[in-house]
Amino acid sequence: MIEQLEPGIARVTFRLPLGIDHVHCYLLRCPAGHLLVDTGLGSRDPEARWRPVLDELDAPIESIVVTHMHPDHVGGARDVAELTGAPVLQGREDFEQCVRAWGRRDPERFAAHWLEQGMPAAAAGGIVADSDRLADAVHFHPAPRLLDPGDEVEGWRVELLRGHADGHIVLVRDGVLIAGDTLLDGITPAIGVYPDSRPDPLGDYFETLARIEELAPRVAYTGHKRTIADPAGRAREIRAHHEDRLARTLAALAGRALTPYEVSLRLFDGDLSPTLRRFATAEALAHLVRLAADGLVERDGDGRYH
Ligand SMILES: [Zn+2]
Hints:
- The mean pLDDT is 95.
- The longest helix is centred in the last third of the chain and has 22 residues, at 231-252.
- This protein is 41% helix and 20% strand.
- The termini are far apart.
- Strand 4, helix 1 (46-56) and strand 5 form a beta-alpha-beta unit.
- It has a domain at 2-105 and 139-246: Metallo-beta-lactamase, Chain A (4-Layer Sandwich).
- By secondary structure, it is α/β, with parallel strands linked by helices.
- The structure holds zinc ion.
- The site of zinc ion (ZN) has 7 residues, from helix 2.
């Protein structure tokens, strides 16, 4: 069940019933045991999910670090904490957003956000239903120890790398980046504007990509898919991808005004599920907001971009 990646770094992978079908959680050896980074979705039967992992480990889980508040990363935090007695550590900003998103849910406001982007009411309703189902699988810890950039956890340095989530943290040590979803291989991390999110997540993400290029780690262990052997090179590829998408967004608006939803239909065509269409709309909006910050487009009173 546990896959050893290099001395002191192992991972366990769980299946996911989402658009992406698996998530990786990492086990970092420390003197007294293991640091668990990320926890998958919350489970109705945490014992069945985690006991085989705990039994296979040669030492206890000492602490649980959450990279960001998306369900597939924070969802099992309380489950594992209850099973092991280990404390949960979560980024300060990320925890605030986690409580806003999952602690005091406001489905009407969530739906209103998508309607404002021009999404048809039926699609927005589908999103709220999906999100209610997902909320049941988010067992975040109510009182984690809060981490700030520059903090150290068992010799790993905490960095704040925004974009995929506003308060996304990563761990860095000796050329190793425990990256969460800041970089992914084969797909690009979703970047979107949500209710209560920071105003320009794509702008934030460009800063994150620059920081990864500057750090130039030897390897990035990511939340999904394959390990990245050239993180700085992958950061450059993803930057080029978003620059191309910004150009395509601008081209879609040539001579016409469109809502973010309509832009999403042009950038991501095809028949998407409500949840995937939400990702597409959030991502289109992130690109529109970035273009607006550069003064290249403008939003009118009807919510259309010119
Ligand atoms: Zn993820």
